[in-house]
Design a protein that fits this description.
Layout: H1 2-16, E1 22-31, E2 43-44, E3 46-59, E4 65-69, E5 74-78, H2 92-105, E6 113-119, H3 129-145, H4 151-165, H5 173-180, E7 185-190, E8 196-200, E9 206-216, H6 223-238, H7 248-253, H8 255-259, H9 264-289, H10 293-309, H11 316-326, E10 331-337, E11 342-350, H12 354-369, E12 374-378, E13 385-387
Parallel strand pairs: 4-6
Antiparallel strand pairs: 1-3, 1-13, 2-7, 3-6, 4-5, 7-8, 9-11, 9-12, 10-11
Helix pairs in contact: 2-3, 2-4, 3-4, 3-5, 4-5, 6-9, 9-10, 11-12
Bound molecules: adenosine-5'-diphosphate and magnesium ion.
The site of magnesium ion (MG) has 3 residues, from helix 3.
């Protein structure tokens, strides 16, 4: 993190001719297991990664705030007086404006400021640069005003910004983990009760490898709402409020009801993924407590197969990455992470072999696809912070 902070600080100094006064950082995240379970009121198991959005800021004599993103090489003006409304088109500063507006409505009244934003979370790769931007923004407002917001409320204000200002109907995972992540811990999050449980992931022999396939398939755009609808239909056929509330046994016993419905087989398989994925997510957290890495790995592979065959959200490149990982010495488990149709895989690997594993997977994947993947290793990182004395 030190490098990106120094870089942001010197950028600020050069642009504004003064030292920044406030620093806020918030990490990106990776989901270890529990995919598409959030909107079914189920479980997710993310951890914060050692990639951050950093904001350096100082006071200004204006009414609004002036923010500049190094990643976008662009400035934007942010209203601080509570008069902002969601714009027709979503732009990068919408995430900031939405967060500021929600914070103002919640009682924070920051003075005018100027800020430099810098991130080493890759933008748009499924590692939640958007939540890290929102959470860094609200953390900056805490630094400026000296007021503290309860972490759960903080995460919910950021989620609301993403819903209203970025028009992305996301669950609570990204903002929760970016706000409340703890170094050395993954977070088992019950999306119904919203109660997070921190699970130690601090064995020096184990490290998490994230591999960006650098593929994002543009499909019809209706895949996500389709999956949501299919899950809702399945819950309805089962007579439960959400798929969280059923079991594999009940699902099997209701198969004939599904068979009578148009596309019933698809809904059945979607439900089977959610029900088994919820079970796997809780089981993986249990296994991690026991440091039973073999079981963790097995559950990750099973999760991938379930996403591939039942939920049908993987793609050939991502399947290939998992296949290569599975046949590489030192890989304990691997699966696609994120919404699907490309993006990243997450793997648990033996730390001592991580370098060799990265090399092997990069070589084999690029030979077969002509695409260079991006690989990095990370341990669970700390959530958002105000940095003093930088
Ligand atoms: P992800 O959250 O998986 O990275 P999203 O599509 O949800 O992908 O969010 C990416 C968007 O968030 C970017 O296209 C941009 O609009 C905004 N964003 C995130 N980080 C930054 C940043 N450092 N500077 C400017 N915009 C950012
Ligand atoms: Mg996002």
């Amino acid at each position: 993190m030190k490098n990106i902070i120094a870089e942001t600080k010197s950028f600020f100094l050069k642009k504004y001719g003064m030292e920044p006064v406030w620093f806020a950082v918030a990490p990106g995240r990776v989901n270890l297991i529990g995919e598409h379970t959030d909107y079914n009121d189920g479980f997710v198991f993310p951890m914060a990664i050692e990639r951050y959005t950093v904001i350096a800021a100082g006071p200004d004599n204006a009414v609004d705030a002036d923010v500049y993103s190094i990643n976008k090489n662009e400035s934007a003006t942010i209203k601080l007086d509570g008069s902002a409304t969601p714009s027709q088109t979503v732009v990068w500063s919408s995430y900031i404006q939405g967060t500021v507006q929600n914070a103002v409505e919640a009682g924070l009244h920051p003075q005018s400021f100027r800020a430099i934003i810098n991130s080493n979370v890759p933008l748009g790769s499924g590692l939640s640069s958007s939540a890290s931007l929102e959470v860094a923004t609200i953390t900056l407002l805490e630094a400026i005003t000296g007021q503290k917001i309860d972490p759960v409320q903080k995460a919910l204000l950021c989620q609301k910004a993403e819903h209203l200002y970025a028009r992305m109907p996301c669950g609570i995972m990204d903002q929760f983990i970016s706000t409340m992540g703890c170094e050395g811990y993954a977070m088992l999050l019950d999306c119904r009760s919203r109660v997070p449980k921190m699970i130690p992931l601090n064995d020096p022999d184990i490290i998490v490898l994230i591999i960006n396939s650098n593929v994002k398939h543009q499909l019809t755009g209706s895949e996500y709402p389709d999956r949501r609808r299919q899950c809702e239909k399945a819950a309805q056929l089962l007579g439960v409020p959400k798929l969280r509330d059923t079991t594999l046994q009940q699902l099997k016993e209701t198969q004939s009801v599904f068979d009578k419905e148009p596309n019933g087989n698809i809904c059945f398989r979607r439900a089977r993924h959610i029900v088994t994925e919820n079970g796997r997510t809780v089981a993986m957290a249990d296994a991690m407590v026991r440091k039973d890495w073999k079981t963790c790995g097995k559950l990750m592979y099973e999760s991938h197969v379930s996403m591939r065959d039942d939920f049908e959200i993987t793609c050939t490149e991502i399947d290939l990455l998992v296949e290569i990982a599975q046949s590489t010495d030192g890989v304990i488990g691997s699966r696609m992470t994120g919404g699907g149709f490309g993006g990243c895989t997450v793997s648990l690997v033996e730390s001592s072999k991580a370098g060799k594993i990265s090399k092997t997977i990069t070589e084999q994947y690029s030979t077969k696809t002509n695409i260079e993947p991006v690989v990095f290793a990370t341990c669970p990182a700390q959530g958002a912070m105000i940095l003093e004395n930088e």
